[in-house]
Each structure stands twice: as C-alpha cells, then as structure tokens.
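Can't paste images in this forum, so I'm doing it all in text. The chain is below; anyone willing to post the predicted structure tokens underneath?
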Amino acid sequence: MVSSFSASFAVWSGCSAPRRGAARLAAVSLASGIVVAGAIVTAGPAAADETAQSSGGATATIGGLKTYGTAVFRADGEEQQLPAGLFEMFVDGGGTLQTYCVDVQNPTQKDAKYQETPWSGTSLNANKDAGKIRWILQNSYPQVNDLAALAGKAGAKSLTEQDAATGTQVAIWRYSDGADVTALDPEAEKLADYLERSARNLAEPAASLTLDPSAVSGRPGERLGPVTVHTNADAVTVTPPVDATADGVKVVDADGEAVTSAGDGSELYFEVPEDAADGSAELTVQASTTVPVGRAFASGTRSQTQILAGSSESTVSATATGHWAEKGAIPALSAEKNCAEGGLDITAANQGDKPFTFELMGITYAIEAGETRTVTIPLQEDQAYDFTIKGPNGFAKRFQGVLDCQTETEASESGDSVQTLSEPSPATVGGNAAADSGTDLAETGSSGATPVIGGIAIGLVVIGGAVMIVLRKRNP
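Text version of the structure:
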C-alpha cells in the first residue's frame, strides 16, 4: 500500500522522503556571510573576516518545486509517495536557475541560501556515477525541450513537462542515492528507465567564476598576488577596494596598469603603497553568464544539495583578500570543504619574515616565512562549525558552515555516527603564541598525523572556555 507524503511547515516537502527514527537533524541555520567589495581593514583590532568556504560563482535562494509529478520511494519494506521534479532558484543580483535535487531523504529548507560548489564539497565527491547524472541533465528536460523527440527515445507515448521533470528526477536519484524509486506515471517511468540505461560518465563542469587563490599576502610597496581569474564568461568586472584613491591601494595587472575588467586566465594584483599602514583589502569580480549544467549547489543550513539543470543569464561573483604588513608574520588564509577526507581544508600562506603561529588546545603550529601549508580539520557529518583564527596586526579570519558530504542513504548503510552542533559559537584561535620548535603545520596533514588532527577537531568544539554540547546519534 502506498502512503501519502505529508508536508512539513519547516521544510519543502519536495525531493525528500519522511525522515525515519534517528534520522539526521538539520544543522542550525547560519546567516550567509555577505562579503562587501573593497572593505579596508587597517591595523589594530578588527572584526573577523567571515568566510563561508565559497570558491565563487552563483549564490541563490531556493524558491520551491516548479515543475513536478509524483514518485514512489521504497525503503525498509515501505512505500511512500513524494513530489519529484524541478526546483526554481533565484540568483543574487539577477537570474534564475532550475535544479534537481540529490539526497532523496534529506529535506529542502524553505528559502535556504545556496552557493555554487565543487563536487568535492558535496556527496557527489565519492559518487562514481556523478558523471552519469551530468549526462542525464544534458540529455533530458529542460535542456531537451522537444518532448515529442524525448518521448520517442524513451519509448513513451507522450510526455508532459511534469512527466519529463519527474522521470528525470527519478533517474538522478537512482544514481545520486542508489534509491529504489520509480515514477508513478507510466510514461515518466519509461523516461527514467531510458535515462538510467543510457547514461554515460561525463567530467565535472568548470565553475562559472572563481579566483585562485582567494587570499594573498605581502609587504607594502609590493604587488600582492597574482590572483588568477577562471570563468566561462566573456569578461568580468573588477571592483577595486573602497577608498582606493585615498588609501592608495589599487588592483593592477602584471605591468602595474589599473584593471577594471578581466577575462579567463587574467592575473590580478593588489598594488600597495610603501607608506600604507598594515591592513587588508578585498577585490570582487563579477560577471553575467549562464552557469554550466551539472554544477552543484550546497547550503550552509544543511538543506538538500541541488544540481543545476538550467540557467538564465545570471550574476556570478568571486572575492579575493590581500593582507599586508611592514614586518613580522603576514598570513593569508582560505578554506574549502574536503569530502574525500571528511573535513575542512585550511590553506595558510605566510609572506612575512617571521613564522605565523597559532595555538589549538595547547599545541602551537607555525607556518614558516615564505611557506604555504594545508591542513585538513576533521569534522563529523552534519557538524556545524564556526571559528576564528587570529594573527598579528589585527588579522582575523572567520570560517563557518556545515559539513554535508553524505546522502541519507549512505549514512544509513554505513551506520555512521552523526554529530550536530545545535548552537555553533564563534571560537577564537591564534594570536602571538611562540612557535613550538618541534611542531609545524605540515605535521597536521592527512597522513601520519591522526593524533594532531584529532586535537584540532576537539579544539573546534572547545576553545576559549566555551563548551558546546554535541549530540551524537546513529541512523537505523
């Protein structure tokens, strides 16, 4: 017997099956960090630069299911109906996106904010069939809007837009979740079977817009960079730091010429006057382009991951930070989710003349002058994190988000314990701790450093006397 799927006031009912028993709690909603182009931070105490681990691209708010039908989901000997089809998302700055969802058992939070995200930061990272999902997206609705031709390929009598969206979503779930799911409508089911049978692995599409690296550092009188633009847009607009004329900080090319626009492969620099006070600045690049089909969209509120099926001309942007000082350590920090390692990669560079040191749980880490190191901070699935690393000259970088690397099906099958922080509080690490002669950030890498990394993970939960209550639970 098929039971109906009941909606929830807290979440969109579409693209999610009822949560069972000890299913994962949704992590607390985190306010999206809005980066103000050109903010100048001078020496001395400063508010932490908030980072949402975005590599750039489109940012959008989910609007709900737009075109959909009904699917039948089977698990644990039960059958349940649920809506299946296309979501609509509204891009910050203009534009709309059409998306399907992955992780069939995870709810989609109403009005959740989403950021274009590499597959490596989502459950698609470990999915050997992720490329087949991209093939389905490129060879079905709405990319293929000749529904008569699509029906002919699928062996269906005819297809409505609702049938096409339903069949496409069902086929995606079979590869994204390994789910036992079918379309209720027979014609939509024929399309799902055709897409599943025909899918071939394709490579992950490139981002619509990124800056690499997203943080650089150096001394006054130098050009900080380069920061390389990667985009599918014909050109991007470069927004220089606010008050650039008064403070003398400019965005230039390798020849020192001021830059207001750039293209794919362009290299940008922060040009800082010799007499500039220690501080930092941000540059923003923005463009209008279509986001490539197959790009993933993830939310910091543990709302269900989406994958792009179609894009109008949309606004995309990316931000890079430059930090400078006359002497001492001059750090630059960036972060990216690493689902392969189950944590957050923090990349730290130091272009100063002294080590950049910070302390976690009594352990001091040092990045030597002129060096760059990456450390993976291990996190539990669904764990919200919110911490700040401080440095000299008023430097402070805040990282916050939630780790969402597994589908509900994967977590249930593996029996993984899930740790959710209901109230992630900002924690502060760093400062001017003396470097431990036997400890270097390189020792906190992914291999041969389990005890050290474990200490870091604990440090994210308990730092500065703030104890956060951690709920551990297991899926049935």
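The first helix runs from residue 130 to 138. The first strand starts at residue 2 and ends at 3.
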